[in-house]
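Page 37, continued from 36.
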């Protein structure tokens, strides 16, 4: 059923992963020159590009992984009759979210090399949302397992 607590967790997970696409993930500011490098889910680019700066780097892998994770979570909500499939989709979603975090780390490392100053970049809200999504995924899987155990215990009583 859609009103179960794990459905709420999965819906919030989908919202978090969709938000990753629209929020900045990482940024780095060079105070001396005023250059700012910003990583979003679709590109790694200078905020105020001057002539001679490098071309924006495409980061569509982050957006694709985040949107795929959101779609899997929304599909998982409606598979409430098959809890075993829900658990498998939850494990797939765990891998997709981890891959999203890995891609964010990779492209922030690329950004560190593009703007070569000693100060490290700062992670923005778009980076922390996949971590929240991981927590929501784990909670949803826990409640799905609990439902499965309840159904099995009721079958024993019959």
């Amino acid at each position: 059923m859609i009103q179960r607590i794990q459905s709420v967790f999965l819906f919030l997970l989908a919202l978090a992963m969709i938000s990753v696409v629209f929020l900045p993930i990482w940024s780095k500011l060079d105070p001396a020159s005023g250059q700012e490098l910003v990583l979003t889910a679709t590109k790694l680019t200078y905020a105020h590009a001057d002539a001679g700066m490098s071309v924006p780097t495409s980061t569509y892998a982050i957006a694709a992984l985040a949107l795929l994770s959101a779609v899997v979570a929304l599909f998982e909500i409606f598979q409430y009759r098959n809890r075993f499939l829900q658990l498998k989709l939850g494990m797939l979603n765990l891998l997709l979210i981890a891959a999203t975090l890995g891609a964010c780390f990779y492209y922030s490392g690329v950004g560190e090399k593009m703007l070569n100053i000693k100060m490290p970049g700062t992670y923005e809200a778009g980076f922390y949302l996949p971590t929240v999504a991981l927590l929501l995924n784990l909670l949803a899987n826990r409640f799905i397992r609990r439902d499965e155990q309840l159904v099995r215990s009721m079958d024993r009583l019959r």
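The chain has four helices and five strands. Flag for discussion at group meeting. Helices lie at 5-22, 60-77, 83-114, 125-157.
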